[in-house]
Design brief:
By secondary structure, this protein is an alpha+beta fold. The protein has five helices and 13 strands.
């Protein structure tokens, strides 16, 4: 006799506006607990720092997760110049500094080289597996993480605002693109150092920012 699954047979997508400060796994666990769902998964990790669209599949919808994972995504984010961090975002430790600050003209001139097919090395603090272990687990244990370069697609990149120490961007990109790597590499191209200080995903496949709901709005069925 088959063992009865715990929870309710809830099926469908929850388009969550993930708050900053929690992992994608924690967000999925909270949604699953709210609905007491038998099965749950998500289509594309967001870093703890990041906010925005986290598409969470429940029940039978988990079978369609790969289609959403492969879809194009839009991110809006802020780069802070002058500091490299071990995580390539504001949560990491400062590893080097630079006094160079790029101006708007220099940034815009560099953007064409950061669109199209790019070769990226993922951040050490990433979910990429190294010999069966997550890179971020190894990095947190103090191990040196060497990740292989990979090709990604950045379809569009736009500079929204440029200040003395920061710049705000929006990119439309394909699966596997790391915004943190994009900012790190752009900063180096501009003769400085940089990391991501704010990050928000505003679209993934058919799901847009206007479709997203906060955790506080969800109630049990």
């Amino acid at each position: 006799m088959a063992r009865k699954k715990k929870g309710n047979p809830v099926h469908g997508w929850v388009i969550l506006d993930k708050p900053s400060g929690i992992t994608s796994t924690q967000a999925v666990a909270q949604v699953r607990r709210i609905f007491d769902a038998q099965k749950a998964g998500h289509a594309g990790t967001l870093d703890p720092l990041a906010t925005g669209i986290l598409a969470i599949a429940l029940g039978e919808a988990t079978k369609t997760v790969p289609f959403v994972q492969d879809a194009a995504k839009i991110y809006r984010f802020t780069a802070r110049w002058g500091e490299a961090r071990d995580s390539d975002d504001a949560e990491g430790k400062v590893t080097a500094t630079s006094a160079v600050r790029p101006d708007r003209a220099a940034i815009e001139a560099a953007l064409p080289r950061f669109t199209g097919t790019l070769t990226q090395i993922p951040p050490a603090y990433s979910a990429v597996k190294v010999q069966g272990e997550r890179a971020y687990d190894l990095a947190r244990e103090g191990e040196e993480v060497a990740l292989e370069p990979r090709q990604v697609q950045v379809h569009e990149a736009r500079l929204i605002e440029a200040g003395p120490d920061t710049a705000e961007f929006e990119i439309l990109c394909g699966k596997g693109t790391y915004v943190r790597s994009w900012v790190r590499d752009l900063a180096r191209e501009l003769g400085t150092l940089g990391h991501v200080s704010e990050l928000r995903r505003t679209r993934i496949g058919p799901f847009r920012e206007k479709d997203a709901v906060g955790l506080e709005t969800l109630t049990p069925l």
